[in-house]
Amino acid sequence: MLQEEKRRELRKKAMNLPLHPGVYIMHNKAGEIIYIGKAKALKNRVSQYFGSEKNHEEKVRQMVAHVDWFEYILTDSEFEALVLEASLIKQHTPKYNILLKDDKGYHYIRITREAWPRLSQAKQIADDGATYLGPYVSSWATKESVDEALKIFRLPDCNRRFPQDIGKKRPCLNYYIKQCCAPCLGKISETEYRELVDEAIDFVQGGSAQSVKQLEKKMLEASEKLQFERAARLRDRLQAIRRMADRQKVVANSVEEQDVIALAQGPAAACFQVFRYQDARLCDRESFPMGPVGEPESARREFLELYYSIRSRIPPRVTLDAPAENMDLLEQWLTQKSGHAVHLVVPQKGEQAKLAEMVRSNAAEQVAQTTGRTVRETSALDELGRLLGLKNPPQYIESYDISNLAGEDNVAGMVVFENGRPLKSAYRKFKIKTVAGQDDYGSMHEVLTRRFQEYVQHQDEGEGFGRLPDLILLDGGKGQVSAVRPVLEQFDLQIPLFGMVKDNSHRTRAITGDGGEIAINSHRAAFTLVSGIQDEVHRWAIGYHRQSRKKHAFASSLTQIEGIGEKRAKALLHHFRTVAAIQDATLEELATAPDMTRPAAQKVYEHFHPAAE
């Protein structure tokens, strides 16, 4: 970590910076640029880095630990600082900025030059005699075009060679599901096959609309010439193109041209996903997996700056799944860079909101593959964090529930969910000590007080009670939240705190905080996670209550023995664990147990071993 002396030196230098817009550039000992940022007031922003580490995200702490010196550039406005920052990041690609490299390259559609030509995707032109269509910027769009052409025109995508392999093997599955004309069977002539290839090339070059017109014209000509078999084949191709167009409507929308960008975060990874639309249809998609990005609004702003600094086309509308930092400045910069008005939009409902959610789900899939979690777990944590207004998805969640029977045998259970899964090694049980009767609010206050007293003693360990949660969920409503809030204030802890509210059927209905209830029924992933947490903490607490009540019942049966009071009964149960073990104990074992005397041991022994009549 950064030496304290070096930290003081850098903070002193930062405090002498002007309260003026500009760009700051952080260097390591080798002089390498490791981070570039912008500020509305350089002094305020840069000095924050060299204050208390507790105020920083992990990403920031790591960056600051490697800073040896910094420099800065003054600008006339915050907008100029934004433009300069984007330019410098693109030029230097610092380690601790989100790195985006324009490594898409070019892609081609390859058509072999042989008697039975084949279509495929290629990353570069080779000196092999084949014909290459392109270049195309998008790998995804190129692959989609090739796949569609192969399916529509029923061209083979296997490794068989024609005419050498005709009649040698049985056709593959694609023939039976009508996705291949199966030249291997010899049922199609070389001339007919080449016609299919030519039509496929027209399709990838001109698009589905132009292909439909050409095929309709050919079908009409075939009908007029009474070539009904040929007309039927052309009709089948037309239907295949229209089916493909119907499939694409799933990813179409009412906005002619836009980019839809979403962020998903996991425990150790994040991903930005971009869906690009032209002519109201999805034309490209890009995925940018990366490490933890810290504060989401800042990460979105940084991503947008970098992404559009390396893109030549900027659409008039950019739809985001959630707000980005400095959206007004970003709009101004994008408008200036593109030469036309650009609007950043965060939809709250309707088609566009569903579209943003779909893109976020794709980003969550990438994060899940990176971290080894399921998509559902990643999506649930991300959705819950956004729903509760948290800066980051809650990776470590503690939940509490109180259980008693008419005020007797008051206990509490604590369960922990880490990265969306139960962490049973961290579960804890509490026996209520200071609250008598049925007082759930007082019991919850006691439990959380004891929990954070343990934190104070074990915080250096960083695990168990020595670790602070990202979120606390209480089984109950506003009353429980109000009872626990003073505990957090007492220990000066800024931990998000919410209650889980059930409906009349004892199912999770909403989450409640200081600002009222938040309905979660319509948020499927978050609802499933919270319901699971509430069910688990209730199971854990009520299980401990039944165990405690059973012990209490056993202790009550022991107090019926002469000379055995409640204190001795509890001591016996604590020592021997079960009534059965007490029954099997010898007189000597009973006499040497804690709080026991020889006469009392004799009474207990005689109670379980009555003299035979």
Automatic annotation (TrEMBL):
* NCBIfam families per UniProt: uvrC (TIGR00194)
Keyword field = Cytoplasm, DNA damage, DNA excision, DNA repair, Excision nuclease, SOS response
Output the superkingdom of the source species: Bacteria
Which lineage?
Answer: Bacteria, Bacillati, Bacillota, Clostridia, Eubacteriales
Carries keyword DNA repair?
yes
Q: Belongs to which family?
A: Belongs to the UvrC family.
What does this chain do? The UvrABC repair system catalyzes the recognition and processing of DNA lesions. UvrC both incises the 5' and 3' sides of the lesion. The N-terminal half is responsible for the 3' incision and the C-terminal half is responsible for the 5' incision.
- Leader sequence segment: none
What residue stretches are annotated with the GIY-YIG domain? 19-98
Under the subunit heading, UniProt states: Interacts with UvrB in an incision complex.
One GO CC term on file: excinuclease repair complex
Coiled-coil intervals: none
Q: What is a biological process (GO) this protein takes part in?
A: SOS response
- Cite the UVR domain residue spans from the record: 209-244
Q: Which Gene Ontology terms cover its molecular function? A: DNA binding; excinuclease ABC activity
Organism from which the protein derives? Caproicibacterium argilliputei
Q: Which subcellular locations apply to this protein? A: Cytoplasm
Query: What range(s) does the UvrC family homology region profile domain occupy?
Result: 260-488
- Tell me what this protein is called: UvrABC system protein C
